[in-house]
Design brief:
Blueprint: E1 10-14, H1 21-28, E2 32-37, H2 61-66, E3 70-74, H3 80-92, E4 95-99, H4 103-107, H5 111-117, E5 122-127, H6 142-149, H7 170-192, E6 196-201, H8 202-207, H9 216-220, E7 230-233, E8 236-239, E9 241-244, E10 247-250, H10 255-267, H11 280-286, H12 293-308, H13 313-323, E11 328-329, H14 333-337, H15 340-344, E12 349-352, E13 358-361, E14 367-368, H16 386-392, E15 415-419, H17 424-433, E16 438-443, H18 468-473, E17 478-481, H19 487-498, E18 502-505, H20 511-514, H21 519-525, E19 530-535, H22 550-557, H23 582-600, E20 604-609, H24 610-614, H25 619-628, E21 645-649, E22 656-660, H26 664-673, H27 688-693, H28 695-706, H29 711-720, E23 725-727, H30 731-736, H31 738-743, E24 747-751, E25 755-759, E26 764-766, H32 784-791, H33 796-804
Parallel strand pairs: 1-2, 1-4, 2-3, 4-5, 5-6, 15-16, 15-18, 16-17, 18-19, 19-20
Antiparallel strand pairs: 6-26, 7-8, 9-10, 10-11, 12-13, 14-20, 21-22, 22-23, 24-25
Helix pairs in contact: 1-7, 7-23, 10-12, 17-23
């Protein structure tokens, strides 16, 4: 029988639509996930979109998407026998997740009761702003949390209001992060012998989708501006989205793209034939020169615009694969389902729907070599497993052995050889570093991490050790500069791997094998090693060779199609959006694989395609397309199932307040606040569908009201009336946010070159525990000697040889 990483564990799921993906991900790894519901069923079952809206028994497509591998039991809070069953389940459980209605409000069982029943449980609560603190009671939803968390401030064209993604994302991020947090807390429970309470803030989760914008103003002295579909680089804003005959593509007109497209541009008569033989190394050097690069970029953008306009987007996609440059189509969800790459990787899974039909859904979010990541069954019917679970309670359940209690950090003693770079890999290894693991960032002075050259720079002065794009992703780590082109450098890389528990790499597919460090080789050196390879499209498949960034993956995956305004080209989420999703999944895999190795001694190899993990955040929309024919696309800030919703300008320039109405009662309150009480009883505004027809009129009235007020004043007035609202906050606002100060989100550390700078903290808190980070990001090679001597245990003669050979710089 193939092993499942989390097979011994029982997870109780009390989430509603806010966070339900988290327990599902643990279920995919083998955990027994039991959804506990009342007779009316979880509120998650009533979350749109539904199968065939005219059916009486409405079936939520989001529920179907995020509740596979779960069982359902109905327990009546007024029935003493059922409450006894609940207490038995809690006593047996390893994990408990809740969002929305708490156990205390439904069953009269609070945190203290839970920990009294089970002193080894990990209890995770997901809320908008945190379980306590000055903002804990704010009324919130997807738009207002994204506004308060920061990413909305960075998205959209400058001539329009800031914009959110047009499909729900907040609670999908929060749910995945909750799963990762639960595994950190479980490891802490094992080391301390005490129950753990995890308090997750969806606002903090969304701040991490800002990537390099999280503390931009504190670092460089100014905020990043909304630049539409451009990306912020050292030489300025670079256009990313280009028109094609049949849509759009995302491309960065850097040296690889210009070199790869040169032949096509010659054939199209856009440049003369000498472009084929151009000195591209010199061109690359010029692109780093602040005096020359802007002109080179201007010419490149113009050529790309004219070249791409002559071709279809999938033609360009295939051209890029053939010529070694990444030209990413802005896919619709329909085009995404037809992409040959996913079929070649057997990614899509067929789901049986309650109406008897089938649909394709995102499948396995990793490809492991020696354990099972599986879809065992679809979402459960209400109380489908009630009797089965009751019968199981009559039998004893074995539990994972408890370790001798200690004060060590959760991953203390674990060593990680981090050969990754840019975003996904380093963020993933940070999950271990901040909780005690010794993470060695293997770097090269000859080819520095791209993020070391990325904005923001401290005091806006460039330097390899002054980038906080790199800094925020690499806290608590050590840096080793290693020249792996030398024989000694390769020998040292093998030595490091022998001394490590985990190896993470994000080279192009096959590159690490060609270097002699593929899994078949390294497991001979270290049989219990856990190795993760992560890249854009995975290690196999016709598009595997694509080398790109998260904005390429976001384009291919469909996120660009659903961001922006319907009358404008796609704007795209801020920066490398899928780089904010994939690390949540990889950290779950890392913690689960380490837990499995503690129990069995076995290592493993895992292939993670960043795009495949990210597609789970569009699972309900993919179902909606196939079941109801609704193709999700960009809607500005409007909400398909609610109205009004928008981001409204306040008194100051670039000051905005997000307002989003979920219920008719909230609408009636809003009418009174903005000075139109007559609308509250006007039948032409009675339902959200009615209000959609008059959205422009309503927007004008709201704007007239907000324009007279500060964004926080507007938010305060609206909140006091029970209306979901939130100021659109930027990085400077977040540093002053009283809820973030209460949660100690930002941590200041002294960096060798930048001095005292703020680092973005964790998205959850564990009671009685300092989540970290533990220290600043490293300078290039800052810990080379320390790693050689203390981690790899080289003697003085071996260290001297390493430096003399050029293996260490």
């Amino acid at each position: 029988m193939i092993a499942k990483l989390l097979e011994p564990y029982l997870v109780l799921d009390f989430t509603d639509d806010r966070g339900e993906i988290g327990p599902m991900l643990l279920g995919d790894l083998g955990a027994d996930v039991v959804r506990v519901e009342t007779a009316s069923g979880s509120d998650a079952r009533r979350c749109p979109p539904f199968i065939a809206a005219d059916r009486e028994d409405m079936c939520s497509l989001q529920f179907l998407a995020f509740n596979r591998n779960k069982r359902s039991i109905v327990l009546d809070p007024t029935d003493a026998d059922d409450v006894d069953v609940l207490e038995q389940l809690i006593e047996r459980a390893d994990y408990l997740f809740e969002s929305g209605r708490t156990l205390a409000s439904t069953y009269g069982i609070d945190i203290k009761d839970i920990q009294k029943i089970n002193n080894r449980i990990v209890h995770v609560r997901l809320t908008a702003y945190g379980n306590d603190g000055p903002h804990a009671g704010l009324v919130a939803n997807d738009l207002t949390i994204a506004a308060m968390g920061g990413p909305v401030s960075l998205q959209g064209q400058p001539e329009r209001p800031p914009v959110k993604l047009s499909v729900p994302q907040v609670w999908r991020h929060a749910g995945a992060e909750a799963a990762a947090a639960s595994l950190v807390a479980y490891r802490r429970m094992q080391t301390t012998g005490k129950p753990q309470f995890v308090d997750l803030s969806a606002q903090c989760v969304m701040t991490w989708t800002m990537l390099n914008g999280m503390v931009a103003k504190a670092i460089q002295g100014f905020e990043f501006e909304r630049v539409g579909s451009s990306v912020v680089q050292g030489v300025g804003n670079t256009e990313l989205v280009y028109s094609t005959i049949d849509g759009h593509i995302v491309a960065l007109p850097n040296t690889p793209v210009m070199q790869g497209c040169a032949g096509g541009m010659v054939e199209d008569g856009l440049v003369d034939d000498n472009w084929r033989e151009r000195d591209w190394e010199a061109y690359a050097a010029e692109m780093l020169d602040p005096e020359i690069a802007p002109r080179r970029l201007e010419v490149g953008v113009d050529l790309c615009r004219r070249f791409f306009a002559k071709h279809r987007k999938n033609e360009l996609f295939e051209y890029g694969i053939k010529h070694g440059c990444t030209l990413a189509p802005v896919n619709t969800l329909e085009e995404l389902l037809a992409l040959p790459h996913f079929n070649a990787r057997e990614y899509w899974q067929r789901m049986n729907l309650p109406d008897g039909n089938e649909a394709l859904v995102p499948g396995l979010w990793a490809k492991p070599d020696s354990f099972e990541l599986s879809i065992r069954h679809g979402a459960p019917a209400l109380d489908e497993h009630g009797e089965e679970i009751r019968q199981e309670l009559k039998h004893s359940r074995s539990r994972v052995a408890q370790e001798e209690p200690s004060d060590i950090l959760p991953f203390e003693g674990i060593r990680v050889a981090d050969f990754s770079w840019v975003g996904v890999g380093p963020i993933s290894s940070k999950y271990l570093a901040d909780h005690g693991a010794t993470v060695i960032r293997v770097e090269s002075e000859g080819r520095p991490d791209v993020l070391r050259g990325g904005v923001p720079f401290k005091d806006n002065e460039r330097g390899w050790n002054r980038s906080h794009f790199y800094g925020d992703f690499n806290t608590s780590k050590r840096s080793l500069t290693l020249n792996m082109k030398t024989e000694v450098g390769m020998a040292l890389a093998r030595r490091l791997i022998i001394e490590s528990d985990v190896l993470i790499e994000s080279f192009s597919p096959g590159a690490i094998t060609r270097m002699g460090l593929g899994y078949d080789e390294v497991r001979k050196l270290n049989p219990s090693l856990i190795m993760i390879s992560t890249c854009l499209m995975g290690q196999t498949g016709p598009a595997a060779t694509i080398a790109g960034y998260g904005y390429h993956a976001a384009s291919i995956a469909g996120f660009y199609e659903v961001t922006g305004w319907p009358d404008l080209p796609p704007a795209g989420p801020w920066m490398a959006y899928t780089d904010t999703i994939a690390p949540r999944f990889i950290s779950i895999l890392l913690a689960s694989a380490l837990d499995y190795r503690r129990r069995t001694g076995s290592g493993c190899y895992i292939d993670v395609a960043q795009i495949e993990a990210s597609l789970h955040f569009l699972a309900p929309e993919l179902l909606d397309l196939q079941v109801n024919g609704h193709a999700a696309t960009r809607m500005g800030n409007r909400h398909r199932f609610g109205a009004p919703q928008g981001v409204y300008q306040c008194a100051a320039d670039e000051a905005w307040c997000a307002i989003s109405i979920d219920t008719d009662g909230q609408w009636q309150s809003l009418c009174k606040v903005i000075g139109h009480p007559e609308w509250a009883n006007d039948r032409s505004y009675a339902t959200y569908k009615d209000r959609h027809q008059r959205h422009d009129v309503i927007d004008n009235a709201i704007t007239a009201w907000t324009r007279e007020r500060d964004k926080y004043e507007a938010m305060k007035i609206l909140q006091s009336a029970g209306i979901p609202s939130g100021a659109v906050q930027n990085s400077g606002d977040l540093l002053r946010d009283e809820q973030y100060q209460y949660r100690q989100f930002h941590r200041f550390f002294d960096h060798l070159e930048m001095g005292s700078v703020p680092y973005s903290g964790h998205q959850y808190r564990i009671s009685g525990y300092d989540n970290g980070p533990r220290g600043p990001s490293p300078c290039v090679g800052e810990h080379s000697f320390e790693v050689l001597s203390e981690v790899m245990k080289l003697n003085d003669e071996e260290i001297a040889e390493a430096y003399a050979s050029g293996a260490i710089s």
